[in-house]
Amino acid sequence: MGVGQLLTYPFMQHAVLAVLFAGIAFPLIGVFILSLNLIPLRFAMMHVALLGGAVGLFLRVDPLFLGLLFCGLSSLVLGPVSEKTKVGLGALSGYLMTLTLAIAFILFYKANIHVVQAFSILWGSILSLTFWDLVLVILVSLLILGLVVFFFKEIQAILYDREVALAVGLPERRLYYVMVFILGLTIAASMRMIGALLIDAFVLLPAIAANLVSRNLKQVFLFSSAFGVISGMGGLYLALVFDLPTSSTIILVASVIIGICFIYQRRRVFYGKKMAA
Amino acid sequence: MHHSIELENIHARFGHVPVLDGVTILASPCEFVAVVGANGAGKTTLLKITNGTVRAEQGSAKVLGYDLSRSDHCHRVRKDIGLVPQRTISHRFPISVEEAVLMGRYGKIGLMRRPGKADRDKAGVSMEAVGILPLSKKLVHELSGGQQQKVALARALAQEPSILLLDEPTTYLDADSSSEIMDTIHTIHHERRLTTLLVSHDPQWIDQYCNKIYLLKDGKSSLIRG
């Protein structure tokens, strides 16, 4: 069966549309994560989602819905709590990560949940997205795009330096909390598509590549989206043609893009020094 | 007498450690005031209280007539205060000098609005005032420490502030650059009729420029000149 024929199936259409929207929007969150050093928060969100899944399996409620709900709620309170307690987002994320994992294991043990079933939330599947999963990905994507387009200058100032953003008179804290909240939603939405373990394929890797070749924040955002779409679509195509796991092929394409960007950046630095000499 | 900056009997902590224990700093309009003290004396905390980003535990903090115990007043007053922070600019993504200076306008432009020609012109005037207009297209991380300090100063001026706060403006600079940046600050202070509050651990670059000097020691302030 050819790729063209596969595209006539609803599951394939869902996958292509999800990759397109997530490819454009999710790497923008990767730019936030890199600039604000929110990598511990991303790990914490993955574990919070796992706890949501565990509670879902325990209560026989959709585990993915509860994963999303838990991520949304915790990302809503995490920013303000870390600022008020002055513990720092990194330390608080570490605390949350271990606590949620411990509670999840207790639930698995007490409810006699099979470990493979429990951890299915960690690897997701882009080819089994339902219509409502697709709607969720599109909604989160539009939310991210809206935030970046309408609040570009505010985001630019916060990513540049939070102290400067506050000092020039922007409502820095409120905007920062919104960014952390949308990060939580993005992690939760990504999990259904690609799994918690490979979230970086959509969120972080395109942003890393874009940082290597850009000369301003607008370019970082634009290249991140472009690389996100290329790696998503390219990975999906390779997975179908060579019968490989989609998440892995998306990661591979994204990694090749990073390699190319790295070589480009080194050549630019080399020729820049040569010209200066 | 009406003061632009009126900090009276200020108490503040850094974590659990009390750093300010009844500090009083007064600055009249157009006055150039310096606060000197050793590292850890609470100078940066004092500046943060002045621009409303940190609340004093006790005492009265009034800036431009605004009572800084009120959140809405803090938010309002920040738009009229230009801050040049101590640490060097972070390089989380590439940014040109022009864009970095334009950020000074962001608070006054308002949420979700793009900077217009008038804002770019004001950023240009600020860059010219500190002598970095020829560098406007360069990336900030490609500049020297002294030039980066001037970018921070130009950004603060682009705000068109009434008050300029400077946190150790010469810390990372050599003697020539320190002298140059202090001359620039002094000229701008007079030309724009600013109220300037500078904190430093090194009195070497301050003496000739200031109307008034406070010493911050053991959490207390004492006026040593002016």
- The helix fraction of chain A, in percent, is over 70%
Oligomer: heterodimer
Q: For the terminal residues of chain B, how far apart are their CA atoms?
A: 15 Å
Strand order of the largest sheet of chain B: 6-7-8-3-9-10
Helix and strand string of chain A, N-terminal first?
Answer: HHHHHHHHHHHHHH
The major β-sheet of chain A equals:
none
Q: Return the structural class of chain B.
A: alpha/beta
- Calculate the mean pLDDT score of chain A and round it: 87
Total of helices of chain A: 14
- Distance between the terminal alpha carbons of chain A, to the nearest Å? 58 Å
Radius of gyration of chain B: 17 Å
Query: Pair with the most extensive interface?
Result: A-B, 29 and 32 residues
- What does the main sheet of chain B amount to? 6 strands, mixed
Q: What portion of the residues of chain A fall into strands of 2 or more residues?
A: under 5%
The radius of gyration over CA of chain A amounts to 19 Å
Description:
- The complex is a heterodimer of chains A (277) and B (226).
- Chain A starts with a helix and ends with a helix.
- The model of chain A has no long low-confidence stretch (mean pLDDT 87).
- Chain A has 14 helices and no strands.
- The relative contact order of chain A is 0.16.
- Chain A has 277 residues and is an all-alpha fold.
- The radius of gyration of chain A is 19 Å and the shape is globular.
- Chain A is 83% helix and 0% strand.
- Chain B is of the alpha/beta class.
- Chain B contains seven helices and ten strands.
- In chain B, strands 6-7-8-3-9-10 form a six-stranded mixed beta sheet, sandwiched between helices. A four-stranded antiparallel beta sheet of chain B has the order 2-1-4-5, with helices on one face.
- In chain B, helix 5 crosses helix 6 and helix 6 runs parallel beside helix 7.
- The radius of gyration of chain B is 17 Å and the shape is globular.
- The interface between A and B is medium-sized, with 29 and 32 residues.
